[in-house]
Amino acid sequence: MGKRPGAAAVTGGALLALLCPGAGSAVAQDAGPFPRPVSGGYASWTTADAEPADHDMTIAVGEPATGGSVDRAWFPATGGGADPESGAAEIELGGTARILPASDAMPPLTLGGLRLELDGGDDGGSGALYARTTTDGHARELALAAMTADGAAPAVRAGGVTWAGLRASLTGEGARLLAEWSGEPFAEGDPLGRLDVTVGTGSAPSPGPGGSAPPAGTPSPSPDTTAPNGPKQPSQPDRATPSSPAATVSAGDLAAGGEQTVRGAGFEPGEVVLVAIDADTRYQAVADEEGRVSRAFPVYATSVEGTHTVELRSVTGERVAATRFEVRPSG
Known about the structure:
By secondary structure, this protein is mostly beta strands.
C-alpha cells in the first residue's frame, strides 16, 4: 500500500485544538471525582519495542516533555486525580508525541492532549491512553492505546503512587489512525511500548493495593536491597547543608554487575524526585511523609571503572542532592 503524504497535516487552528484541552475535542472528559489530586510527577514512555519502530519510524517529543536515552521520553503530569485505595486514576500529561515516518516525503503524526485513565484493582487493572490529533483538517480525541498492568498492583507510598511496567497496545481506532496516516499495516493489539508512571497525590493517602512498598522507578522496578558487593559504608553527601537535601549510597565502592541503593532526605513529603546516574535521568521516586526517598538500581557489568555520581532532584528543580561511589572491575 502506498504512503499518502499530507494525510495528517496540522494547520494553525487545528494545532490549537490539538494542544488546548477542550478546544475542538469531540470526546467529553467526564472525569469522576478522585480523593487525591495529582500534584506533579512524570510518565516515562519506553518505545524501543513499539510497533512503529518495526516500520523504521521514531517517536520524538515536544516541550514540556523531554527525550531520554534508549528510546525513552518523559512526560510531566500536569493534572488529574488518583484514588490510592483502588489504584484508579486519570492523569493529564504535558507535551506532545510526534511519530516520525521513515520518509521525509510525509509529515509527522502529532499527538497532543495525552491523558491516562487507569481503573486500578488488585491486579493493577487496565485502562487507556488518550490523545488528540488532526486528520483531514479535523481535530479529534481517540483512545490511542489500551493499557495493561500485567498483574502488578500500583505501589503506594505516603503522598504518591507508582504504576510500573504498564504495557501499551494499539486500540482498533489507534491502529486505523496509524495505518491511514502512514499507509503501513497496523493492527489492534500491536505493541506501543511500556509506561512507568509516578505521581504525587497532594497529601498522604491511605495504604492501597500496593501496601507500603516503595514506588518503583523506570524502566523497571528493583527491590530495595543492599548492594551484594563492596563494603557497606555510607558515602559523604555532596552539595548538602543541614537545611538542604542530602544523598547517600549503601556502598561506597562495589564491583561492576552488582546493585546499588541511593537514599535521600530533606525533600518535601509527597514530592516526586528524579534519580540521575552520571547525569542520565533513569528513575523516579516519591518522598515519604518524612521527606525521604530510596531507590535501588543496577550497576551494569559494562560500567566503567572509577567514580560515578548519583543525583536526586525534585521535579521542580528546587531541591538537589548528589553523592558518588566507586566501581571496581567484576571478579
